[in-house]
TrEMBL record:
Family designation: Belongs to the ATG10 family.
BP-aspect Gene Ontology terms: autophagosome assembly; autophagy of mitochondrion; protein modification by small protein conjugation
The UniProt record lists the keyword Ribonucleoprotein: no
Gene Ontology CC entries for this record: cytosol
Alphabetized InterPro entries for the sequence: Atg3/Atg10
Protein name: Ubiquitin-like-conjugating enzyme ATG10
Recorded superkingdom: Eukaryota
UniProt KW keywords: Autophagy, Transferase, Ubl conjugation pathway
The organism's taxonomic lineage, starting at the top: Eukaryota, Metazoa, Ecdysozoa, Nematoda, Chromadorea
Position of the signal peptide: none
Keyword hit for Chaperone: no
GO molecular function per UniProt: Atg12 conjugating enzyme activity
Length: 159
């Protein structure tokens, strides 16, 4: 588990390091969360906007990943399209342990609009099993970030 104070300290360092690596992360709401946006190319060749946020879940005491994808006109992309064309999860991968089963569509706790998130209920158990010298947030992102194809630098070089 991670306290909110630890989260705020780690998210600040994380954003600084990401900016050093020329990745577009920013602290928002006085350090309550980090945000990154970029373009994703869908399987049909269209570019869509991706918006990714890292927030703290006080209920589960872990970081949470919130994300959404938008057409050029600002329309959110439907879940089935996100899964098939952006996350590229095939029907054969849709088991109980699939990332698809852990993605929820809820009201964003700060923005108040619908966003996808990877539900944090199992995060604490996953993190207990992970043996690492890296910080909690970086270790967490090495697992959860890759599940939504988040572009990240080589974490093996981080202290």
């Amino acid at each position: 588990m991670l306290t909110e104070q630890q989260f705020r300290e780690e998210i600040k360092v994380f954003v600084e390091r990401m900016r050093e690596n020329k990745l577009n992360w920013q602290l928002k709401e006085n350090g309550r969360y980090a945000r990154e946006s970029h373009l994703e190319t869908m399987s049909d060749g269209r570019n869509v906007s991706a918006d990714v946020h890292i927030l703290y879940s006080s209920t589960y005491q872990v970081p949470t990943l919130w994300f959404n994808y938008f057409e050029n006109n600002g329309t959110p992309i439907p879940f089935d399209t996100v899964v098939r064309d952006i996350l590229k999860i095939s029907v054969s991968e849709e088991s109980d342990s699939s990332i698809r089963q852990r993605i929820s569509h809820y009201e964003h706790p700060i923005l108040g609009v619908l966003y996808y998130n990877i539900h944090p209920c199992n995060t604490s158990n996953v993190m207990k099993e992970l043996k690492t010298e890296k910080g909690y947030l970086i270790s967490w992102l090495s697992i959860y970030g890759q599940q939504i194809n988040l572009k990240m630098p080589d974490f093996s070089k981080w202290q």
